[in-house]
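so im writing up the methods section and need the Ig-like domain-containing protein record in one place, dumping it here so i stop losing it
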Amino acid sequence: MSSSSRMEETSLLCLLSRLTVSPSSSQFFEYDFVSLSCEEDDSSAGWTLRRNTSKQQRTQCGDVWGRGSGSSCNITVFPLDSGVYWCESREGPISNMVNLTVTGGSVILQSPVLPVMEGDDVTLLCKTKTTPSNLPAAFYKDGSLIRKQPTGHMTIQHVSRSDEGLYKCDISGHGESPSSWITVTDKPTTTPPPTTTTIPTTPDLTADSSLQLAFRIVLHLVVLCPYIISTLLMVSLYQCRAKGNDISDSTKPTLLDQGLDNERDDVITDVTTEYHF
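--- predicted struct ---
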């Protein structure tokens, strides 16, 4: 991975300050005017701009390059100003790092100077120093041709990690731009707050509630027992009376029996009367 990629990964560690570049581009022509600024969350930290180039290491704005004013720095760039720039505080923390390329050639590729968020659209512009910026251009990624655009603009829609790489462009008859690394960062995910579902539960019975439950059971038994006993007694008495009626009915003489008895009594009476005469 190139130093530009490592530089952009370091930018993810920035917590207190961010380095911005105006115009927002990672490539510039010689003699372009560039403004660098530390966007501070803590102004008391004393942020200053520093850089590493092929000739100088950790030099501060205002010493041998640029004109500084607090946490900002303005510079008219030359090819020797190509390098890595960052903000640094007195306490030691640093901001994101930005890799700037300055060319003495006639073609540059304007590409995002900061990492691109996954899912966003990115527009690349291939432009010359002296001619209009709408000339046909060919765009390359990692040395391979992506596409040719008649207006010099190429838009990558909904970038993903696979779009990360080293890009350059070429305008026929004018030349080729330097290469710049484009970093794609993960889109932050917003996790919805967990939804809690309250499940109704049966409360535990305490000692008091247990006593109340037992009292109610006993009370019901006291009320119901006499009723049940009286009901059973009434059923038993009814059954006994029914059996007694059946027995008495069976012992009563039938009408036929009564008739025979009467005839017998008449015969006996007649015999007795004749005997007396």
